[in-house]
Write a structure and sequence with these properties.
globular, Rossmann fold, 29% helix, 6 helices
Length: 190
């Protein structure tokens, strides 16, 4: 099998594993992950953080966005930019009014939200389908996040259920390695 086939098979396996987590357990695991993240020096020191709006199958760290804003941090979310066919970072100050459903049905900043250069971000929370202990990440397969990550200078952190940690994620030259990975039970620094 080539790399694309390996990635597709891994996506299917991990998605099936994550789908078995009950909604109640997801809530408890998300709480544990957020508590672990709050204890990390990189979280405490970060001034500008790129968040993501979690989908149902992703570990929910969304409440951290409100906490970051309350602490005076800059909260940034990706917004799809059709001109460049990729994501840009945009500042969010009032999540209740600054967000809308984007191109892929994911919450993202409205067009009125100010763009933030990606190289100004201190800390980047990164969703994915699977991760390994070497900081490799398997996304949804379109490469949008790898394009976004190529422009950041801050610390990148995968966010995952423990079920999403695998022995090895197959990679291609464009895949970006992460600095750390957060799960409900572990803080992994490859």
């Amino acid at each position: 099998m080539d790399s694309r086939d390996l990635k597709s098979a891994l996506r299917n396996k991990v998605r099936a594993d994550v789908a078995r987590i009950t909604p109640e357990r997801r809530l408890a695991l998300a709480f544990e992950a957020r508590a672990l993240l709050e204890r990390q020096p990189v979280w405490k020191e970060a001034r500008a953080i790129l968040f993501f709006a979690p989908m149902v199958e992703e570990l929910d760290v969304w409440p951290m966005l409100e906490e970051a804003l309350a602490a005076g941090k800059m909260a940034v979310l990706p917004r799809f930019d059709p001109e460049n066919a990729g994501y840009v970072g945009c500042s969010v100050k009032e999540p209740a009014t600054d967000l809308t459903l984007g191109k892929f049905g994911i919450r993202e900043p409205r067009a009125s939200c100010a763009r933030v250069p990606l190289n100004r971000l201190d800390f980047i929370l990164v969703p994915g389908v699977a991760f390994d202990l070497h900081g490799r990440r398997l996304g949804r397969g379109r490469g949008f996040y790898d394009q976004l990550l190529a422009g950041v200078r801050g610390r990148t952190c995968g966010v995952a259920f423990d079920e999403q940690i695998v022995g090895e994620v197959p990679t291609e030259p464009h895949d970006i390695r992460l600095h750390c990975i957060l799960t409900p039970t572990r803080w992994i620094e490859p």
